[in-house]
Write a structure and sequence with these properties.
alpha+beta, Maf protein, Alpha-Beta Plaits, 2 domains, six-stranded mixed β-sheet, five-stranded antiparallel β-sheet, 22% strand
């Protein structure tokens, strides 16, 4: 990997990064042509890796992530750094609920546990399918829910590594490689109000315009993965209407929050106790309903402290990111699904594109352009598409598998939802393209590209 971009950076207009030419992180000409068609937008030229004059000098990055988002980001950032051009990368595969999300990121090499062994594509497909059916042998048809997933990541050009915080669902939340206190923290951007003290089981200090570091703990037991997702969504619910959620980390038995309450339309500041009550009561009710219990989910109090300055803000930020690693839940903080920052607005998949490209005022957190200029390659946009269905049962009528000749990989085993009567290999090319995970991800990415270039 080179130390400097091979192409000199062009001018970036305020609010709109230079996306006149985008590298697609693949050497497959058919994939390049497909994405050119799906992402066609006036003023943007898409080129494949092999279209670059110095493509033989490019170093293929090692995909060490445990999620599609992480691997797509690794590729996008690496090739953006090497080529000096914005880069679009994707990662895709099959997830089966009954197998805990496997095959996942090793879908193409599932039969060899993710290792490359020199097998042909046809040999791998046959062995992968055989292993998948064996793993599901005792699983009844109604519990074989599965989906093909595609995640696309667009990164800006630059020279350094730009980490991102994974988001369970539609994509990533970008953060600087080393957050700069001046841009990351709203501290001192508002005139602080008087300091107040309240007493519960623990003392709490309150100040309008303050930023808080909060920890709340589960009373007993731990949160399941689905329950952690519920808690993470609740932590981000009021961002950015009532508070700026700079970072949230949901651990199995506790939650860390770094947030700044905001003033309401009436000029009165939203209070931290009200925000915490909203989070804790909603999650307790939702999780208890799912568990069919009426137990007390959270400890009655939470621990909080006012963040005094930018240096302390950065120390807390880094401590929070390291928390899942210290607890030996993951090897790298990027791989922990329940970590997310909310400086830029996020939207659900069904709500369309995220607003990562929009500039935000200082009181709403750092802008994407500030991150990119300070930290090198930056994730500008992400999208996630799924194609839902289930894995069929061998020999079972009327939906026995494998079936069909129009697909490859897991297509002959995958019964396309919602009807689950035809396999992916039985769909026409037109229908498959219309419904596919890659097509959905590309459609969402196209909307974000329009937003990024102001079209």
């Amino acid at each position: 990997m080179t130390d400097q971009p091979k192409h000199p950076p062009g001018p970036d207009l305020p609010g709109h990064p230079d996306l006149a030419k985008i590298v697609i992180a693949t050497g497959n000409p058919h994939k390049v042509e497909e994405l050119r068609r799906l992402l066609a937008l006036p003023g943007i030229e898409f080129v494949g890796l092999k279209d670059l004059p110095d493509h033989e000098a490019l170093v293929e990055p090692e995909e060490t992530g445990t999620t599609f988002e992480a691997n797509a980001t690794i590729k996008a950032i690496s090739y953006a750094a090497q080529t000096g051009l914005p880069c679009l990368a994707d990662d895709s595969g099959l997830e089966v609920d009954a197998l805990g999300g496997a095959p996942g990121v090793i879908s193409s090499h599932y039969c060899t546990d993710g290792r490359e062994t020199g097998m042909t594509r046809a040999q791998r497909d046959e062995a992968n399918n055989r292993k998948l059916l064996e793993a599901l042998d005792a699983v009844p048809p109604e519990q074989r829910a599965a989906r093909f997933v595609c995640v696309m990541v667009l990164a800006s050009r630059g020279t350094g590594f730009q980490p991102v915080i994974p988001y369970c669902g539609t994509g990533f939340q970008p953060v600087p490689a080393r957050p700069t206190p001046a841009s990351m923290s709203p501290i001192n951007q508002h005139t602080p109000g008087p300091l107040h003290k309240s007493l519960g089981d623990l003392p709490h200090w309150h100040q309008d315009g303050a930023t808080y570091f909060i920890t709340t703990r589960v009373r007993t037991g731990s949160l399941s993965p689905d329950e952690r997702t519920i808690v993470l969504d609740a932590c981000l619910h009021w961002h950015p209407q009532r508070a700026l959620v700079h970072l949230a980390v949901v651990m199995p038995d506790h939650v860390h929050l770094l947030l700044s309450p905001l003033p309401g339309t009436d000029g009165q500041w939203h209070k931290l106790p009200d925000l915490m009550h909203s989070i804790k009561s909603f999650t307790a009710n939702t999780i208890n309903k799912a568990r069919e219990t009426q137990a007390t989910l959270w400890q009655p109090e939470y621990y909080d402290r006012i963040v005094r300055d930018g240096d302390e803000f950065q120390e807390i930020w880094e401590y929070m990111l390291k928390n899942p690693v210290t607890a030996e839940l993951v090897e790298h903080w990027m791989d922990y699904r329940w970590t997310r920052g909310g400086q830029q607005e996020q939207h659900r998949l069904e709500a369309g594109p995220t607003t990562l490209a929009k500039e935000h005022r200082l009181e709403a957190g750092p802008t994407v352009l500030e991150h990119r200029l300070e930290a090198g390659p930056t994730v500008l946009a992400t999208s996630r598409g799924t194609f839902d269905g289930r894995i069929g049962t061998p020999g079972a009528s009327p939906a026995g598998v494998p079936r069909g000749t129009n697909g490859f990989g897991y297509d002959p085993l995958f019964l396309a939802g919602p009807e689950c009567l035809r396999t992916g290999a039985e769909l026409s090319a037109e229908e498959k393209n219309r419904r596919s995970h890659r097509g959905v991800a590309a459609k969402i990415m196209l909307e974000q590209l329009r937003e990024l270039v102001g079209k």
